[in-house]
């Protein structure tokens, strides 16, 4: 019985202490009223009390000057000074200006209708066999029978003409068909067709693993 009373008393005391702690926490978190700040600087208060009032800014008097004219004042430009030159100096300056003037280039007279190239009956072709190092220069008739070189290279000419005198480069141009016949008497296979220029054999000539061929000229 006594033990129960002690337990009940302890529980009541604990409840009272908890309620007090909660109340104190709520009161601590609640906002408080504002309070005036007590001055703790007597020397500063005395200086602020005895400081003189700010003086007014000094006013500067406007400078003395004559009043503006009622009507515009005309301004006279200064006179132009002309320096007299000697006649010899003027002639020298004029001659120098004439020398510096650009000279008009004379137009090159071009013919109204370009001259036609002259056609020839035969094309002169040179060929080389890269296997046997055999080389030959031969003629091929334009529109005639093809020419066989070293039994396998067949060359036919379709046209051959020379450049006109008014062209910049004197050249011979031929239109050739070149075929390669197999050694077993099979059907020839065409390996080149087009224009060849004697002035540029490395550009327009035939280049083949077995043969090289190029045009040399045209003749009647």
Describe this protein's structure:
The structure is a single chain. The protein is an alpha+beta fold. Helix content is 25%, strand content 27%. The chain has helices at 2-29, 42-50, 87-100, 201-204; strands at residues 118-119, 122-129, 135-141, 147-149, 153-162, 172-180, 189-197, 206-207, 211-219. The longest helix is centred in the N-terminal third of the chain and has 28 residues, at 2-29. The radius of gyration is 60 Å and the shape is flat. The termini are far apart. Mean pLDDT is 78; it is low at 29-37.
Give short descriptive properties of this protein.
alpha+beta; 220 residues; 4-stranded antiparallel beta sheet; 4 helices; 5-stranded antiparallel beta sheet; 27% strand; 25% helix
SSE order: HHHEEEEEEEHEE
Proportion of residues in extended strands: 25-35%
Number of helices: 4
Mind telling me the C-alpha Rg? 60 Å
N-C termini distance: 156 Å
Low-pLDDT parts are 29-37
- What is the mean predicted local confidence, pLDDT? 78
Structural class of the secondary structure composition?
A: alpha+beta
Helical content stands at 25-40%
Oligomer: single chain
Shape assignment? flat
Please summarize the sheet with the most strands: 5 strands, antiparallel
Strands, count: 9
Could you write a compact summary of the structure shown?
This protein is α+β, with helices and mostly antiparallel strands. It is built from 4 helices and 9 strands, in the order αααβββββββαββ.
């Amino acid at each position: 019985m006594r033990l129960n009373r002690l337990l009940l008393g302890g529980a009541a005391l604990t409840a009272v202490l908890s309620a007090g702690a909660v109340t104190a926490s709520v009161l601590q978190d609640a906002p408080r009223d504002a309070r005036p700040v007590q001055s703790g600087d007597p020397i500063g208060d005395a200086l602020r009390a005895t400081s003189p009032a700010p003086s007014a800014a000094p006013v500067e008097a406007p400078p003395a000057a004559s009043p503006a004219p009622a009507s515009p004042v005309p301004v006279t430009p200064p006179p132009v000074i002309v320096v007299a030159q000697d006649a010899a100096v003027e002639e020298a300056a004029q001659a120098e200006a004439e020398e510096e003037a650009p000279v008009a280039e004379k137009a090159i007279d071009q013919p109204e209708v370009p001259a036609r190239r002259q056609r020839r009956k035969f094309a002169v072709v040179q060929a080389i066999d890269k296997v046997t190092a055999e080389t030959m220069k031969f003629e091929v008739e334009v529109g005639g029978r093809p020419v066989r070189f070293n039994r396998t290279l067949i060359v036919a000419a379709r046209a051959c003409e020379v450049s006109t005198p008014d062209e910049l480069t004197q050249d011979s141009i031929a239109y050739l068909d070149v075929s390669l016949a197999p050694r077993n008497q099979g059907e020839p296979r065409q390996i080149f067709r087009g224009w060849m220029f004697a002035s540029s054999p490395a550009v327009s000539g035939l280049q083949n693993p077995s043969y090289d061929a190029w045009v040399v000229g045209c003749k009647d």
